[in-house]
Automatic annotation (TrEMBL):
Any one GO MF annotation of this record: oxidoreductase activity, acting on X-H and Y-H to form an X-Y bond, with a disulfide as acceptor
Alphabetical list of InterPro entries matching this protein: GrdB-like, Various_sel_PB
Protein name: Glycine/betaine/sarcosine/D-proline family reductase selenoprotein B
Entry keywords, A to Z: Oxidoreductase, Selenocysteine
Lineage of producing organism: Bacteria, Bacillati, Bacillota, Bacilli, Lactobacillales
Length: 171
């Protein structure tokens, strides 16, 4: 079974709202937040979320090198097969964090995927550098399908499979 790490911001990880946007990087060897919904979807693709890494999105934007070093170091140490950054929905700071981290993981040879809605400004900046799965904004229709697509695309990357048959779910 391939090992997946989930990257979340402070809100999605259940660590509070904007008052914790400066939360330092941390993690748990468990599926947190949306990871609970994603876990059985990953299992159907012979993958498992073995850890959730998180930090405040504002903290990341102020200290990207530190967070990238810690998260990439964790992924290498625990031989993570692929990383899912998000779901960031329409939130600009989390979208920027997700896309930049996905790009950093890829640069270090760790397959990665980001996920966000069309309203997220990070798409325009990173869509040519990062695999980004489409999803609705918070409260939008199609969230369950987008979660299935996140699991499918990330699993394909973990298994080093082609994404040619899933381009309709990517930006």
């Amino acid at each position: 079974m391939k090992k997946i790490a989930l990257i979340l911001n402070h809100v999605q990880a259940g660590m509070g709202s904007d008052e914790n946007a400066h939360l330092a990087p941390s993690g748990k060897k468990a599926a947190l937040g949306p990871g609970e919904t994603l876990k059985p979807m990953f299992h159907s693709h012979d993958c498992d979320i073995v850890a959730t890494l998180f930090c405040g999105d504002q903290y990341y934007l102020e200290h990207p090198e530190e967070v990238e070093k810690k998260f990439i170091g964790f992924a290498k140490k625990f031989e993570i097969d692929a990383v899912l950054c998000g779901p960031a929905m329409q939130y600009p700071n989390f979208g920027e964090m997700s896309a930049r981290l996905a790009k950093a993981f890829e640069k270090h040879g760790i397959p990665s995927v980001a996920s966000m809605s069309i309203e997220n400004p990070a798409i325009e900046t990173y869509k040519s550098d990062v695999t980004i799965v489409k999803m609705p904004k918070k409260g939008g229709i199609g969230l369950q399908d987008s979660f299935k697509n996140m699991a499918l695309v990330t699993s394909k990357k973990a298994h080093a499979e082609s994404l040619d048959d899933v381009t309709n779910v990517l930006f």
